[in-house]
Amino acid sequence: MTLTLDSPGPQPTGELAPRVAPVLFPQSSGRDGLERLEAVWALPKRFAFVTEVNNTHLGVLYIATGFLFFLGAGVLSLLMRIQLAYPGLAFLDAGTYNQFFTMHGTVMMFLFAVPIVEAFGVLLLPALLGTRDMPFPRLSALGYWCYALGGTLVFASLFFNIAPDGGWFMYPPLTGPKYSPGINTDVWVLGLGFVEIAAVAAAVELVVGILKTRAPGMTLGRMPILAWYMLVTAGMIMIGMPAVIAADILLELERAFGMPFYDATKGGDPLLWQHLFWLFGHPEVYIIFLPAAGMVSMMLPTFARAKLVGYTWLALAAISIGFLSFGLWVHHMYATGLPVLSLAFFSAASSAIAIPMGIQVFAWIATLWDGKPVLRVPLLFILGFLFIFTVGGLTGVMVAAVPYDWQVHDTYFVVAHFHYVLIGGMVFPVFAALYYWTPLVTGRMLSERLGRWAFWLMFVGFNAAFFPMHITGLRGMPRRVYTFPDDVGWNWLNLISSVFSFVFAAGVLVFLIDFIRHRRSGPEAGYNPWDAPSLEWLSHGADYGFRSIMPIRSRYPVWEQEGLKEDEIGGRGFLPDAPTREREALVTGPITGEPEQIIRLPGPGWTAFLAAAATAIALAAGTLKITAIALAAGAVAAGAYLYWLWSMDRLAPRGLADAGRGVALPLYTNGSRSVGWWGMVVLLISDAAVVASFAFAYLFLWTARPGSWPPDGSQIPGFLAPVLLSAAVIAAFILFETADRMNQRERRRDTTLCLGASAVLAIGAAVAGWFWLRGLGIDPTRHSYGAAVWTLVGTMGLHLVMGAGMALWCTVRLHLGMINSWRCLTLRICLLWWRFTAPVTVLVLLMIAGFPHVIS
Amino acid sequence: MSSLELDDGELDDEVEPHSRTGTLRRLLDPAFGHFVWAVHFLAVYVGAAVACVLGLGAAGEGTRTTFLAVLVALTVVATAVVVGHAVWRHRQYRDLPDQRFRMVLTIGNSGIATVGIVWQLFPILLVPVCA
Question: How many angstroms away from the CA of A676 is the closest CA of chain B?
Answer without folding.
Answer: 15
